[in-house]
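I'm stuck. Protein, please.
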Amino acid sequence: MIYDLAIIGSGPAGLLASIYASRYGISNVVIGAVSGGQASQTHELGNWLGTQKIKGFEFAENAAEHVKSYGTEMITALVDEIKKEETFTLFLSDGKKIEARAVLLALGTKHRKLGVPGEKEFFGKGVSYCATCDGFFYKNKTVAVVGGNDAAAGAAVFLGDIAEKVFLIYRGEKLRCESFWREAIEKNSRIKILYNTNIKEIKGGQKIESIVLDNPYEKSENLSVNGVFLEIGSDPNTELIKNLGIDLDGEGFVKIDQSGRTNVKGIWAAGDITTGSDKFKQIVTAAAEGAIAVRSIQQFLRK
């Protein structure tokens, strides 16, 4: 079978694109490792229209069920390679091959690494990139969250209801998160913000025991913690497409026009991987880009 559209990525951009494609009568398949993408790891969403509060994993489950309600196939796998001939052939990590007339890249981003000694060694032994995934293991313990964005603030608030003490470590002088998160942090006495501070090293034995700071806290560079949660942003997930000749900007994001087209015929992109929406990386902007791209894909397929 040759699909009209292969959607690579199962985050908000890819899932909403699939829904629009199905409603347009475009045969499509969604390929991704995790339904909901990074949205599934979010503690709580409060800015999705019509839903005052919802857990990230619930949002992801609802979105996936919505896609499946149209009979769309969702494949849990990674795409290892894309070959372009008259159509596109996608080689999957599970050994399958998918053929499609058009491709939508909704690959999203990957967690940015801190790049300090101990980060790699203690991954899974105290270093985590997902508070909602691993926070449960730190009940009544001391943890550090690194970052000053919404994700970091949200992780600190989430962990503030679990851990005994949460240190929110930020290199700047003022958090960059929404006022909603700042107010929630201020109300929680378990959360302590360390401004103008970076982690120089993560230390321990079998598990994390301490971190080394470049700005002493209470006259010491060593801070005892049981876990470190890194929320310092993300980078576009573009390894798969580097051999396709797709134009990227200086930061590695996929360049798209207002309809989501890339410079390669038959390939569109949507969501956090793109230069679209003024690089405002939100669920609503990712989903909107997915819908806009499919409208353009429909016109392309008609021709």
